[in-house]
Write a structure and sequence with these properties.
378 residues; TIM Barrel; eight-stranded parallel beta sheet; two-stranded antiparallel sheet; binds ligand FNR
Length: 378
């Protein structure tokens, strides 16, 4: 059954998704900020990290589980929050919730999800974390917070790296908008991709499901620039559960957030969708880990394309790792089977890499001695 989808790596998923998705949708998922130098550099930095294989360590039994915030996750990776996932395929949000439930891993549910936060919390079997954007004067933001708490969420992911939505030329070229609008240009694009169009548009075009337009209308491009440290303190007081701050690349910010009451920090460049000149997130991860010491919970996303990349993030200091684009590509390529296949590919890649490094648990990966450095620093 496995691999019937043709997915043997995340690159396969991306290639198949590119064929199936309208250009506008593919570029919404795949695109990055500015000239996309940052996105390329981020992948390059990940590739440049080399790991040292070890021998004779009896690695016959390997365990991929990790405990995070006191809960056992069966895989060392989870789902980063992403808006409008149902553009990849109808019910993509529910597929993500389902796999999160099966493997008991955190499922980031975006403020701008295409399925409402209550439905996704239930579908994920309580593994979902709600991701919050500050918007407008903040009053709508606090309403969402209350809704998330009432729905049962115990962990909030506050994304802070979008004071303004980044300029992503690939989206702009296609006239990409949320809520979704279909003009003549999009109509042609959809006509050229009938497989996607028939399946997706038959279900009605995806919507920003957390906003019914009565209480609070969400504008994706609305400025969030007014958020400051006072706002962080207000949110910290308003949210009794775990608070994860996503989108941090500076060690100084990380230290201040820890002191201001964040329970964890998610080092992330938003997949380089915000600042083309951002440093490779994987390199800042190590810097931030060194600044915070070994105990403070540090999560990571951005530029993960394989199980080996996941292992590298643990070696660089992560306590948990989140995936973005590649999951949507797997769904676009093969629906839930595509997602399951990629999930299994990543799990195998992690397990094989652990065997190569001579470790049997994820905890043993958190050690920079796995890094290979060229002789004489050359
Ligand atoms: C995102 N990301 C994101 N992050 C967030 O906090 N809230 C959101 O609504 C979204 N929406 C979103 C949509 C799409 C299509 C993508 C690709 C990404 C960012 C996401 O959580 C994560 O930081 C990056 O995707 C990680 O980079 P990779 O793994 O995609 O390279």
């Amino acid at each position: 059954m496995l691999f019937e989808t043709g997915i043997h790596s995340s690159a396969d998923a991306r290639r198949l998704a590119r064929r199936r998705l309208p250009w506008m949708v593919f570029d919404y998922i795949d695109g990055a900020a500015g000239q996309e130098h940052g996105a390329a550099l981020s992948l390059r930095a990940m590739q440049d990290i080399r790991l040292t294989p070890r021998v004779l360590r009896n690695v016959g039994k390997r365990d991929l589980s990790v405990t995070q915030f006191g809960k056992l996750a069966l895989r060392p990776f989870g789902i980063s929050p992403m808006g409008m996932c149902n553009l990849a395929a109808p019910e993509a949000d529910l597929m993500l919730a389902k796999i999160a439930r099966e493997h008991r891993v955190p499922h980031g549910v975006s403020t701008v999800a295409s399925t409402d936060l209550e439905t996704l919390y239930k579908a994920s079997g309580g593994t979902a974390w709600f991701q919050l954007y500050f918007s407008g004067d903040g009053s709508g933001t606090l309403k969402l917070l209350d809704r998330a708490r009432e729905a049962g969420y115990d962990t909030l992911v506050l994304t802070l790296d979008v004071p303004e939505v980044g300029r992503r030329p690939r989206e702009l070229r296609h006239g990409f908008k949320m809520p979704f609008r279909i003009g003549p240009r999009q109509f042609l694009d959809f006509a050229m991709h009938p497989g996607w169009s028939l399946a997706s548009l038959a279900k009605g075009s995806p919507k920003l499901a957390n906003f019914d337009g009565k209480d609070y209308v969400f504008d994706r491009t609305e400025s969030r620039a007014a958020a400051d440290w006072g706002y962080f303190d207000t949110l910290r007081m308003a949210w009794p559960g775990k608070l994860v701050v996503k989108g941090v690349l500076s060690a100084d910010d990380a230290l201040r957030l820890r002191d201001a009451g964040a329970d964890a920090i998610q080092v992330s460049s938003h997949g380089c969708r915000q600042l083309d000149s951002a440093p490779p997130a994987i390199l800042t991860l190590r810097e931030i880990r060194e600044a915070l010491g070994s105990e403070f919970p540090l999560f990571f996303d951005s530029g993960i394309r394989s199980g080996e990349d996941i292992v590298k993030a643990y070696v660089m200091g992560a306590d948990f790792v989140f995936l973005g684009r590649i999951l949507l590509f797997a769904i676009a390529a093969g629906g839930i089977e595509g997602l399951r296949t990629l999930w299994s590919v990543l799990s195998q890649e992690i397990s094989l890499t652990m065997a190569q490094l001579g470790v049997t648990t994820i905890a043993e990966l958190k050690d920079v001695s796995h890094l290979w450095t060229p002789p004489n620093g050359s």
